[in-house]
């Protein structure tokens, strides 16, 4: 008797997973040197409804949003609406979503019960930015990402020293998820060129000296020659909001006002 794949069950056999770190390494090698939009298209096709873009709708966000819209307008786009954003960002978000025909933008907000318990008067950022970012960004995003195996970020190596070694794909420590950074090797000039080529509208605050835009209370304009992220948490020993930290740094240390992780 001739054995075929069905009889042996081999056709349906699942390959063992390598684990996120090895998978990220393999994916980085496979896609090295390819155009960002090609990588995005392949990954969105391969991961189907298990991939999401996380976008701040900030200074450089239009590039990835535009690419995504050309590949699949139903791609989930997770927008962290912290409740502390500039009015200009909220308007820009609605404008870009309509312009690009994005069909699945999801507003990710802090849980009302968390806010009521930990930041009832909205002043936590004045005394504990780590705790505030955890409450308004990290925790809501972790909850929102639960259904996904991969998320796409807009981070770039040129943005900060903390991002200098950013890989195209990376494993998210503490979870089984993979992160894709399609623009990891793009610099400011390339971003500008792409936006000009495709006639993409800039965030309204860019022309007013904000090359990096976060929450209103924690973002200031940047002077010529300063690091583009110098206006984020200016004067504080803080350069990242915490959503990209991993391992023991994933949950930062929100000691003041008793802000603690309620996430398992
Ligand atoms: S950036 Fe500022 S206001 Fe926004 S979540 Fe972090 S500390 Fe709070």
Globally, the shape reads globular
CATH topology heading: Rossmann fold
Oligomeric status: single chain
> Strand share of the residues?
5-15%
* Through-space gap between termini: 53 Å
Low-confidence stretches: 1-12, 246-258, 260-264
Structural class: alpha/beta
Mind telling me which CATH architecture this is?
A: 3-Layer(aba) Sandwich
Bound molecules: iron/sulfur cluster
Radius of gyration: 20 Å
> Using DSSP, what is the number of strands?
6
Main sheet overview:
6 strands, mixed
Number of domains: 1
CATH superfamily: HUPs
Walk across the major sheet and give the strand order. 3-2-1-4-6-5
Total of helices: 9
Keywords:
9 helices, alpha/beta, disordered N terminus, single chain, 264 residues, binds iron/sulfur cluster, Rossmann fold, 6 strands, disordered C terminus, 6-stranded mixed sheet
How would you sum up this structure, described in words?
This protein has one domain: Rossmann fold (3-Layer(aba) Sandwich), CATH 3.40.50.620. It has nine helices and six strands; from the N terminus they run αααβαβαβαααβββα. The protein has helices spanning 5-8, 20-31, 36-47, 61-71, 87-100, 112-118, 124-127, 129-144, 188-197; strands at residues 51-55, 77-80, 105-108, 150-152, 169-171, 178-180. The radius of gyration is 20 Å and the shape is globular. Mean pLDDT is 86; it is low at 1-12, 246-258 and 260-264. The site of iron/sulfur cluster has 13 residues, from helix 8.
């Amino acid at each position: 008797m001739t054995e075929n794949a069905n009889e042996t069950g081999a056709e349906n056999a699942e390959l063992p997973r390598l684990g996120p770190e090895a998978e990220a390494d393999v994916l980085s090698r496979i896609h090295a040197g390819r155009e960002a939009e090609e990588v995005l298209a392949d990954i969105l096709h391969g991961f189907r409804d298990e991939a999401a873009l996380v976008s701040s709708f900030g200074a450089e966000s239009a590039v990835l949003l535009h690419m995504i819209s050309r590949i699949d307008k139903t791609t989930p786009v997770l927008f962290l609406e912290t409740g502390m954003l500039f009015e200009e960002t909220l308007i820009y978000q609605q404008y870009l979503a309509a312009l690009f025909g994005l069909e699945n933008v999801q507003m990710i907000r802090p849980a009302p019960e968390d806010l009521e318990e930990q930041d009832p008067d909205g002043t936590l950022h004045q005394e504990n930015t780590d705790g505030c970012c955890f409450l308004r960004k990290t925790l809501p995003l972790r909850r929102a990402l639960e259904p996904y195996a991969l998320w796409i970020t807009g981070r770039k190596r040129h943005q900060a020293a903390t991002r200098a070694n950013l890989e195209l794909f990376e494993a998210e420590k503490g979870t089984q998820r993979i992160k894709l950074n399609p623009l990891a090797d793009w610099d400011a000039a390339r971003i500008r060129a792409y936006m000009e080529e495709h006639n993409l509208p800039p965030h309204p605050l860019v022309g007013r000296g904000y090359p990096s835009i976060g929450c209103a209370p924690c973002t200031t304009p940047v002077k010529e020659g300063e690091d583009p992220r110098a206006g984020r948490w200016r004067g504080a020993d803080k350069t990242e909001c915490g959503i990209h930290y991993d391992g023991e740094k994933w949950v930062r240390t929100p000691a003041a006002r008793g802000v603690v992780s309620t996430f398992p």
